[in-house]
Write a structure and sequence with these properties.
alpha/beta; Rossmann fold; four-stranded parallel sheet; 13 strands; globular
Amino acid sequence: MDPKHGYLTHLECADCATAYDATVEQHRCTCGGILLARYDLAAVAAAVTPALLAARPWSAGLWRYAELLPMADPADRVTLGEGATPLLPLPWLGAELGLDVWLKDEGLNPTGTFKARGAAVGVARARLLGAGTLALPTAGNAGAAWAAYGARAGVPVVVAMPRDAPPLTQHEVRLYGARLHLVDGLISDAGAWVAEGVQREGWYDASTFKEPYRLEGKKTLGLEIAEQLGWTAPDWILYPTGGGVGLVGLWKAFNELRALGWLAPDRPLPRLVAVQAAGCAPVVRGWEAGATATEFWQGAATVAAGLRVPGPLAGGLMLRILRETGGTALAVDDPTLRRALGELARHGLWLCPEGAALLPALRRLRASGRLAAGARVVLLNTGAGLVYPEVEPLA
């Protein structure tokens, strides 16, 4: 094990499998592919077991999985208490649908969303590699998280987001001391502004999938779900899909767990479902067309700001993952989403709009016959409803 980089061995292109040195700053493969962190999993398996993990306090958060993260020295980590979020049974929904339904509630993370996971590892790794100013486009929540963790790490952060992004996330970015730039347009327009700054100012490009380590924080979702279910994989995981880092992270986590031999051997890997808003559904359109890549979604519009990602960089990889896992993709319109928001609240769950979309999606999947009776399903709520006070539920 390297004293700085842990069991991380190299980076590998998800498309062409070209290997890259992980000890220096890297962003994308020369072929344009996304870089994935790779570990010496045989050495990890020899060093730690599920039984040893069980002795670690949950208060360590996502860092309880340190051997599967890209840094060894605790002094290099950046934390605000992220991870270790609850996995809640939903017996009322399970009884309705004849399923074993659980909710992974990421709204209890710092800054109120699962973006804290990616920011914790992404900021820490960027600092370890000697990055200066970090820059990223965002629909809102990632900007707030990276601003908070940048402040924690003492690293400057520049955030670009649409002018109509949730007001609370704009306030958060300013409050944490990051530089906020508002664009008239979508996250894709914010991305173009950041790309110009990266070239002109030499900023560290922390855009989604343009650095490899945000994904490593997000994959801890899968590690936690497996541990909370007694090192078994659920049959299905429904994930609200914008940029798709969480979807790719879940896929990566369960594949690593299988390679480690930590999963119950009698269960297959979970089928992953990409749930999008009807007003911005490039993955769903690509899936229904049988495509290998997504096309830019013109006129993207939805109250679920995190789903308003018209041109996800990992579109092709997400479609590949859905095929590999036997999953699917479907879209939910805003009125249906808002009705689900109200229904969930009446069960004590104030989810973000993105997470609320999972309820009607699950019902449609069950009605279609895709989900067998008794199947274990995890709904991944990505954030707290408190982040979106302006989104009114419908009765």
